[in-house]
Amino acid sequence: MLLSIQDLKVAFRLGDRGSKTLAHAVRGVSFDIPENSTVALVGESGSGKSVTAMSVLNLLPDNAQREGRILYQGRDLLQASLPELQGLRGREIACVFQDPMSSLNPVFTVGQQLSEPLMKHMGLSARQAIERAEALLGEVGIPEPKRRLKSYPHEMSGGQQQRVMIAMALACEPKLLIADEPTTALDVTIQRQILELLAKLKTKHRMSVLFISHDLGVVGEISDHVVVMRHGVIREQGPVERIFSAPQDAYTRALLACRPSLTDIPARLTVIDEHIAAQAGNGAAQRVAKAKDPAAPVVLEVRSLAKSFWLREGLFGKREFRAVRDVNFQLRKGHTLGVVGESGSGKTTMGLTLLRLHEPTGGEVIFDGKNLLKISDAERQQMRRRIQIVFQNPYASLNPRFTIGQTLVEPMSIHGIGASTAEREARAHALLNKVGLDASAFGKYPHEFSGGQRQRVAIARCLTLDPEVLVLDEAVSALDVSVQAQVLNLLRDLQDELGLSYVFISHDLAVVRFISDEVLVMKDGEVVEQASAQQILAAPQQEYTKRLLGAVPRGWSPDRAAVTA
Fold first, then answer.
1. C-alpha neighbours within 13 Å on the C-beta side of residue 334
2. Structural domain of 468
3. Is residue 69 part of a domain?
4. How far apart are CA 51 and CA 18, in angstroms?
5. 3-state secondary structure of 276
6. Which helix (H) or strand (E) covers residue 65, if one does?
7. CATH label of the domain that carries residue 408
């Protein structure tokens, strides 16, 4: 057995060093990782899966307390000294994290960062390390590896950065790779490439992988054994085929049920607690989705929208980069337009250009009979009340110095909504209730909330101005499947109740299929296909669209079992 975790308990000391107050994150977790196998840790945010994995090499803060046993090739790592652990890190056990930009040093080139572990652990000279680094970049599929050695992390795409992280992790040919949510923020085609790369490298190097994820669709495609965690305990574990074909625990069944599907489109997505309650016979009646009016009035019309950026080339030259080209669509009242495509396809730039957060280089955006791209600043201020945006990362878009109450009241004060502060605060309380947050949230700060709760606050802030159109830019892509289901259900409820229209930008086709009435598929700044959501799914016309659909993780299936048998 390569690694055996036995009765692991992890708690975090709250307060100063002498405090006895503990927050228990992991409560008696036990599982094994055999040689040359992939074990997946699955659960929602806060389930303890990352804390469990980071305990292996003690990559936890100083206030963490660990008990139990972590046996690596028979050696208890909980008893290992810091120098012993440093000798293992990178050499025999390596890690790949979710956000490569927070792990890669922005002031060092890729070549320098790849060379460091090779010289430290393998004793290579600087020249040998650079040659090995070039080979590693080629192995993980980065084009022109010799040139890329001189690149800085910010000069590479998200998928390329993640490949660099994998190359760094594999530099010393470790026996165990810990991959903590390595594909969560990537688009479906890059995610597919990273999953296939990990599977290929695992086979080539005969290493084991501890793969951490909240997405059972991804887990079903890559793992041999699955460990399901919730609230710091293991709810269920077993071979991947048994977990998917005959899950024993109600929580596992709920996790499988709450992810959007490309084939089954329910009126509402299943939420974990609702699914468990329904199985116990305590479930509430399912709400029926409100029927859309195909003849609803057009609230937003985009004609030949274009956006270019000018890039410096040489000492005095510059060249035009056409990020968005000739985009056309109509958005009806109460309807949702889904916009999908890979990273770099222009979908976010298109959304920001609609709102003139990027100044357009051509086209028209007609709203309420006026071209938003030509109106005065005073008129634009008024129009911004009626068209709002929700960003991917709510923590970056919420002011950390403002309480939630201040965040909601400020836009109402600026736009003169409400006759008094008391009236605005009452409206803010009502909006918090509408998005599923209680009154205590009013006086708290953003850091006191989970990602899903912060996204609800961001949606509530938009609603303070009574908008008619919301642009949602990857608004659920970083959320785990259950919280994602809650936010998507909330968006659908608000649309039914308030008649909102959405431009929903996402790389997740299953999510887009659930919430959208019409879909635009973008590639290299252009719309390559446009049709109803049902038509796009059932009969895609373009090869690019078919490739996007083919890259969507579908979990374990008997077909996979037949291939791997």
1. 14
2. 298-550
3. no
4. 22
5. helix
6. strand 64-72
7. 3.40.50.300
**How far is residue 353 CA from its own chain's centroid?**
23
pTM value surpassing 0.85: no
User: Taking the CB of residue 238, how many other CB atoms lie within 10 A of it?
Assistant: 16
The length of the chain in residues reads: 565
User: Per the domain annotation, does 292 fall within a domain?
Assistant: no
Collapsing DSSP to helix, strand or coil, 307 comes out as: strand
- Domain presence at residue 545: yes
Q: Measure Cα distances from 78 to 1, 22, 74 in Å.
A: 17, 19, 12
Domain count for the chain: 1
Contact in structure between 26 and 47 (CB atoms under 8 Å): no
Backbone angles phi, psi at 225, to 5 degrees: -135, 140
Torsion of CA 135, 137, 138, 144, to 10 degrees: -110
| Residues ≥6 apart with Cβ < 8 Å to 552 | 188, 217, 262, 508, 509, 510
First to last CA, the chain: 22
Q: How far apart are CA 209 and CA 94, in angstroms?
A: 10
What does 354-396 look like in DSSP terms, one character per residue? HTTSS--SEEEEEETTEETTTS-HHHHHHHHHHEEEE-S-HHH
The tens-digit pLDDT sequence of the chain (565 residues) is 899 999 999 999 887 776 778 889 999 999 999 999 999 999 887 788 989 999 999 988 888 999 999 999 989 999 999 999 988 888 889 888 877 777 888 899 999 999 988 898 888 999 999 999 999 888 888 888 898 899 898 888 767 888 888 888 888 888 999 988 887 767 777 788 888 888 888 888 889 999 998 878 888 888 999 999 999 999 999 999 999 999 999 999 888 888 777 777 777 887 887 778 777 665 544 555 567 888 899 999 999 999 998 877 777 788 888 999 999 999 999 999 999 988 778 898 999 999 888 999 999 999 988 898 888 888 888 888 899 998 877 777 889 999 999 999 999 998 888 889 999 999 999 999 888 888 889 999 988 887 778 888 988 999 898 899 999 988 887 677 777 888 888 889 889 988 999 999 988 888 888 899 999 999 989 999 999 988 888 889 999 999 888 888 777 776 655 445 4
Q: Report residue 118 as tokens.
A: 């090779």
